[in-house]
Specification:
Helix content is 4%, strand content 40%. The protein contains one helix and twelve strands, in the order ββββββββββββα. The chain has one helix at residues 118-122, and strands at residues 2-3, 6-8, 13-18, 26-32, 35-41, 47-51, 65-67, 70-72, 79-81, 96-97, 99-102, 105-109. A hairpin with a 2-residue loop joins strand 4 (26-32) and strand 5. The model is unreliable at 121-126 (pLDDT under 50). Bound molecules: FE2/S2 (inorganic) cluster.
Length: 126
C-alpha cells in the first residue's frame, strides 16, 4: 500500500500521519513527492525510513521482517541496517531518510531528492 503525506514546503517536513497507522514491527510505503519511501516502526517504537525498493531485485522492503535496527527483504532475505542503509553484501545499500515522531505523528525531513507535489503542499497541516 502506498500512502501520500501532507508536506510543508517551507519547513520541508512531511507529515505521514499518525504513528499507529504502522503496526509495531512492520513497515508501510509512502509516496513522498514522486519518491516511494518505506517507513518502519520497530517493536520498541523506533521509526526508520529507507527507499522502498530493494537494490537487489526491487523487493518491497516495507513488507520485510523488521527488528534490531534492520529489515530483511521479503524476496531473497538480504539484510539492511535501517540507520546506515548498509547491507550484509557490501555492494548493496539503501538510501535512508531522517524521520521522527512528533506528538503522535510520523514526521519526515525532506532531502533535496524529495520534492513535494503541489497537491501535497496544498494539504499541509503544519
Ligand atoms: S530483492 Fe531484496 S534480496 Fe532480492
Amino acid at each position: 500500500m502506498v500512502e501520500a503525506p501532507t508536506i510543508d514546503a517551507v519547513t520541508r517536513k512531511a507529515n505521514l500521519g499518525r504513528v499507529d497507522r504502522i503496526p509495531l514491527g512492520q513497515g508501510l510505503t509512502f509516496l513522498v513527492g514522486d519518491v516511494e519511501v518505506a517507513v518502519f516502526r520497530q517493536r520498541d517504537g523506533q521509526l526508520f525510513a529507507t527507499q522502498s525498493r530493494c537494490p537487489h531485485r526491487q523487493g518491497p522492503l516495507a513488507d520485510g521482517v523488521v527488528g534490531a535496527g534492520a529489515v530483511v527483504c521479503p524476496l531473497h532475505a538480504k539484510k539492511f541496517d535501517l540507520k546506515t542503509g548498509h547491507c550484509s553484501e557490501k555492494t548493496l545499500c539503501v538510501k535512508t531518510y531522517a524521520i521522527h515522531e512528533d506528538a503522535g505523528n510520523i514526521v519526515m525531513t525532506l532531502d533535496s531528492e524529495l520534492k513535494p507535489s503541489p497537491l501535497e503542499t496544498m494539504n499541509a497541516t503544519f
